Amino acid sequence: MNLSHLFKRCLPKSQLYQSSTRLLQTKCVRIHKTGSTDVLTNESIDVPNLASNEIQIENEFAGLNFIDTYHRSGLYPLEYPAILGCEGCGTITKLGSSFEDFKEGDRVAYYQVGSYSKYVNVKNSNVVKVPDGVSSDVATACIVQGMTAHYLTRSTFQLKSGDVCVIH
């Protein structure tokens, strides 16, 4: 889903990095307890400090998946308060230490809980570059579905030559 409508009241970029003592603010969709869609809240929060193995991403898109409803309902428990969403795509705004494969400005997609946020810190092992020619919405949608397809064709049933696989 395109996140722009959720973050219209987000601080302008010129106000985000004012001093080393002020943390970056972000808009997010967060829950404080399990329940129906009524527990979803639109909040402004501080983005945690970046760890050395993390990449800070300004989200353009976040995926909406069944697992998000499982997290919200409590079927798959989270630590609360929690930002929902497991996949996203955006631009790198900041890097932890010693990164050779990524740079600020790279367009990336990722898998990690917390994608319903304008800014998110993601472990570098959960991030992939988005190739030129692949739109951000397609890159976002490929993460969970791609992992599911890999799991089903490698772990659940190992496909081999001559097998038929229906993709829908």
Note down, in words, how this protein is organized.
- This protein is an alpha+beta fold and 168 residues long.
- Helices cover 20% and strands 27% of the residues.
- The chain is built from 3 helices and 8 strands, in the order H-E-E-E-H-E-E-E-E-E-H.
- It has helices spanning 13-16, 66-73, 136-156; strands at residues 25-31, 41-46, 54-62, 82-83, 87-95, 107-111, 119-123, 127-129.
- It has a 5-stranded antiparallel β-sheet. It has a 3-stranded antiparallel β-sheet with strand order 2-1-4, with no helix packed on it.
- The longest helix is centred in the last third of the chain and has 21 residues, at 136-156.
- The protein is globular and about 60 Å long.
Summarize the model shown.
The protein is of the alpha+beta class and 168 residues long. It contains three helices and eight strands, in the order H-E-E-E-H-E-E-E-E-E-H.
